[in-house]
Amino acid sequence: MTKALKIIHWTPRILCIMAIAFIELFAMDSFDPRLSVPSQLMHFLMHSIPSIILIIFLVTAWKWELIGGMIFMIIGIGFSPLIFSMNYHMNHSVWMSLGIIATITFPFIVIGVLFMLSHFMKKKKAEGKR
After folding, report:
1. In the chain, how many domains are there?
2. Angle, helix 37-47 to helix 49-63, in steps of 10 degrees
3. Residue 65 CB: number of other CB atoms within 10 A?
4. Do 71 and 53 touch, CB atoms closer than 8 A?
5. Which residue, 27, 65, 119, 124, is most buried by CB atoms nearer than 10 A?
């Protein structure tokens, strides 16, 4: 595997792990000292569902890059209007809402593009060997 192909292979995987870890940070707000430990753990598990789903998508993308890339692009593009709308109704600022979109959903679009690029580069290299 060439150096460029290795970079394109590992970059979306590493970025995705980092993005999932960032999303998982939002689950930390489930810990409240006024609640019992079992209740806190249940809330944490419920808040971790998005991260668990994203991990399943990462495992899928790891094995089937094209399908995984499409999934991550759909996630990024599909959730952007929803997240923008929710944040705009809270803060009434277009720029702040766009910043939140750039922080939360844009990385998944980039990850999807990189997974698909990796797929096509590997396919092109395999066809070149024939």
Report:
1. 1
2. 40
3. 25
4. no
5. 65
Cβ–Cβ under 8 Å, residues 94 and 88: yes
Q: Are 82 and 95 in contact (CB under 8 A)?
A: no
Write the CB contacts of 66 (distance below 8 Å, at least 6 apart in sequence). Answer: 115, 116, 119, 120
**Tokens describing residue 53:** 């789903």
C-alpha 83 chain-centroid distance: 14
Which domain range does residue 97 map to?
3-129
User: Model-level pTM?
Assistant: 0.87
The residue behind tokens 């720029």 is 95
Residue among 102, 117, 10 at smallest CA distance from 66: 117
* % of the chain surpassing 90 pLDDT: 78
Closest residue by Cα to residue 100 from 82, 83, 77, 75: 83
